[in-house]
Amino acid sequence: MPTPLSPEAIQTLAAAAEGDPALKLLVALIGIHALYPHQARALPLAAVDFTGGRLVHGNIDHPLDAFTRQAAADYIQLRHSRWPYTRNPHLFLSSQTAHSRTPVTIGWMQPLFKDLPVTAQRLREDRILEEAAVTGADPQHLCAVFNITPDTGLRYTRTFHPTPCPTETRRARRNRQPPRLHPTTSASSSTPNR
Q1: pTM of the entire structure?
Q2: What is the DSSP string of 28-74?
Q3: Are 71 and 21 within 8 A, CB to CB?
Q4: Which of 58, 118, 140, 173 is most buried by its number of CB atoms within 10 A?
């Protein structure tokens, strides 16, 4: 069951992100837009539309908030200064991928989170839990906003509503075994006399 990050973990992450433009942009993409880590690594540079104010790629179409806009601008400036002649279309680059057309790998991203009290996946989960808390833990809303399956949406809402939803109750009733009678009790003797 997903659990929210502690305020201390968030503060530590925020402090680390201030000193690293790549980490700051990853925190924005995963912690605000709830992209999966692999989606963030594979984003093309063109996905950040500063003119239209949107983050757009495939089934991702989100408004570009001020934090993400600034983090993207800072990282892109660093990207251009380090690799001014790269032809790699991806947003994130490394010294290996700058000379190819491939996205960065998980091996590039893991060291960014290595000494932090949170993983990229936990950061994404925290964002979805935050949305659930603000919107009343509506699983349909979570499915629409984050493009997740209904089962995943229910998993996130169980943090706020631990009792099963009506669908789960019906499923449990269908799969329930008939009650077992005590060995000394027969079916006829268990019915009350009238």
Answers
A1: 0.79
A2: HHHHTS---HHHHHH-BGGGEETTTTEEEETTEEEE--HHHHHHHHH
A3: yes
A4: 118
Print burial letters for 5-24: b (CB count within 10 Å at least 16), e (below 16): beeebbebbeebbeeebbbb
CA–CA distances in Å: residue 70 to residues 21, 84, 99, 119: 10, 20, 26, 23
In Å, how far from its chain's centre is CA 88?
Answer: 26
Measured between alpha carbons, how far is 23 from 120 in angstroms, rounded to an integer? 10
